[in-house]
Design goal:
512 residues, Aldehyde Dehydrogenase, Chain A, domain 2, 2 domains, seven-stranded mixed sheet, five-stranded parallel sheet, 16 helices, 38% helix, globular, binds 1,4-dihydronicotinamide adenine dinucleotide, binds magnesium ion
Length: 512
């Protein structure tokens, strides 16, 4: 790599040479101390190099954490409404550049433009919500048990927050973490997924343009073990927020516990959609297609199990499969495409392996099951939308997160049976029920064991001001979105003000 390329500003470039992006530490764009870089490739066409990014290591993380720590001393004292105004301006800038950022994201991530526009919109929505939070950050005032004494609880920032994010929502997920964190007065070090760093750059650049002071957000790019783990292990990082696989989540949680850090883990799902005999069938089919194959099935909330009552089972299956077969798979930059590629070779191989596992287990493969590699497909990681029917709920394809366009259809006798199947999972993120019976709907809202339940909509479609997260092994109990995020990025301080001018002992001095 010629050094002149490395010293160019992060967004310059020409058609013949990909842009080179550097880490953002203390407001400066810096090369990694490792001297190494990696390529960000388009999963729909790997001949397309989106950019060159720094392959960072522990020393880069340490510098970023130091910068965040220095910035925290000042940033925590900036009034929250002022901090929030920067976030509000960033929302406006994001929307002005929505199409540019969506195209960048489709190139680096593969999902279709309608979805990447939605991803940018979600970051803007989060920014608007969190900007409003700057004038709330409410805490309770409450009566004291003693006379002439005042009591309240205030929210204080936690300190330096480390964030490790995945590739499936490359701008929205960083926004869920960064924006509440900074409005609450924290400073951040983020390591975006190695497959999709550009969208995090776009988000953070917009925040800088909106007036964010240097060091408040620092970006260190690279791979998990070299650039992610040192964030979690660094004793000056006070909180860690991670979204990704259960396997890495367990390591992050264990490492964070060594220093008693706040730690939020958002992991997998095996999300069921139940369709009862009385459901609006057209609606359920449309919802199942969107929930199962949107984002190529690469959502933690993807509809990966569809549980159908026997009275409409065959009708549903026939029409669902017909729709799945017709989905237009291709490059997400083409407006006509309905489903893009898998994110990388590893994920594609994983999808293909589960397509084989399902057949070996005895599930009936109704459509899909193969890689697409003819013509233009050969340059990307495309697989067919795949539907298995007559799936036994204990099969691996009904229990394990595939994270690909593979839907397992399971027959059931009725709501009770369906909920038993739905709840028989190690995860518990999102669930859905299609019915017109209000009694059944309310029973399901109570008894589906998950963080999210949709009625007459598929398992995807979370809005940013509601709690997002799950039960069981989907996470460790925290919620992102809305006030749940504020809870994570602040710590309570109880304040007592005694204006009685005498020693008053709680629990002891009681005026009987
Ligand atoms: P991953 O969990 O390996 O990666 C997520 C993030 O963690 C990335 O930024 C990665 O660099 C980082 N990371 C990896 N190893 C690390 C370590 N030892 N210490 C600290 N950080 C580390 O997920 P991957 O490999 O991209 O996908 C594998 C599977 O994970 C998917 O097939 C899917 O099942 C699940 N997944 C779930 C997501 C969700 O939204 N809950 C998002 C992405 C993946
Ligand atoms: Mg991994």
């Amino acid at each position: 790599m010629a050094t002149d390329t490395l010293t160019r500003s992060p967004l310059e470039g020409d058609a013949s040479r990909p842009n080179v992006y550097r880490n953002l530490i203390d407001g400066e764009w810096l090369e990694s101390t490792t001297g190494q870089t990696f390529e960000n490739l388009n999963p729909a066409d790997t001949r397309d190099v989106i950019g060159i990014f720094q392959k960072s290591g522990k020393a880069d993380v340490e510098a970023a954490v130091e910068a965040a720590k220095r910035a925290f001393a000042k940033w925590r004292l900036v009034p929250a409404p002022r901090r929030a105004e920067i976030v509000f301006r960033a929302a406006e800038l994001l929307l002005e550049q929505k199409d540019v950022f969506a195209r960048d994201m489709t190139r680096e991530m593969g999902k279709v433009l309608a979805e990447t526009r939605g991803d940018v919109q979600e970051a803007a929505d989060t920014a608007y919500y969190m900007a409003g939070e700057g004038r709330r950050l409410f805490g309770p005032t409450t009566p004291s048990e003693l006379p002439n004494k005042f009591a309240m609880a205030v929210r204080n920032p936690v300190g330096v927050c480390g964030m490790i994010t995945p590739w499936n929502f490359p701008m929205a997920i960083p926004s869920w973490k960064l924006l509440p964190a900074i409005v609450c007065g924290n400073t951040c070090v983020i390591k975006p997924a190695e497959d999709t760093p550009l969208s995090t750059f776009n988000l953070v650049r917009v925040l800088m343009d909106a007036g964010l002071p240097k060091g408040v957000i620092n970006i260190v790019t690279g791979f998990g073990p070299e650039a992610g783990a040192p964030i979690v292990e660094n004793p000056n990082v006070d909180a860690v927020s991670f979204t990704g696989s259960s396997e890495v989540g367990r390591m992050v949680g264990t490492a964070a516990a060594q220093n008693f850090k706040h730690c939020s883990l958002e992991l997998g799902g095996k999300n069921p959609m139940i369709v009862l005999d009385d459901a609006n069938l057209d609606l359920a089919i449309e919802g199942g297609i969107w929930g199962g194959f949107g984002t190529t099935g690469q959502r933690c909330t993807a509809t990966s199990r569809i549980i159908i009552q026997k009275g409409i089972y065959h009708k549903f299956v026939d029409r669902f499969v017909e729709r799945a077969q017709k989905l237009r798979v291709g490059n997400g930059l083409d407006e006509k495409t309905e489903m893009g590629p898998a994110i990388n070779r590893e994920q594609m191989d994983r999808d293909l392996s589960y397509m084989e596992i399902g057949q070996r287990e005895g599930a009936k493969l109704k459509c899909g099951g193969h890689r697409l590699d003819k013509g233009d497909y050969q340059y990307g990681y495309f697989v067919e939308p795949t539907v298995f029917v007559d799936v036994d709920p204990k099969m691996r394809i009904a229990q394990e997160e595939i994270f690909g366009p593979v839907v397992a259809i399971i027959p059931c006798d009725g709501l009770e049976d369906a909920m038993e199947i739905a709840n028989d999972t190690r995860y518990g993120l999102s669930t859905s029920l299609y019915t017109k019976d209000v009694n059944k709907a309310f029973a399901a809202m109570r008894d589906l064991h998950a963080g999210i339940t949709y009625i007459n909509a598929p398992t995807i479609g979370a809005e940013v001001h509601l709690p997002f997260g799950g039960v069981n092994q989907t996470g460790n109990g925290h919620r992102e979105g809305g006030v749940g995020a504020i809870d994570f990025y602040t710590q309570w301080k109880a304040v007592y003000v005694d204006y009685s001018d005498r020693l008053q002992r709680a629990q002891i001095d009681r005026a009987e």
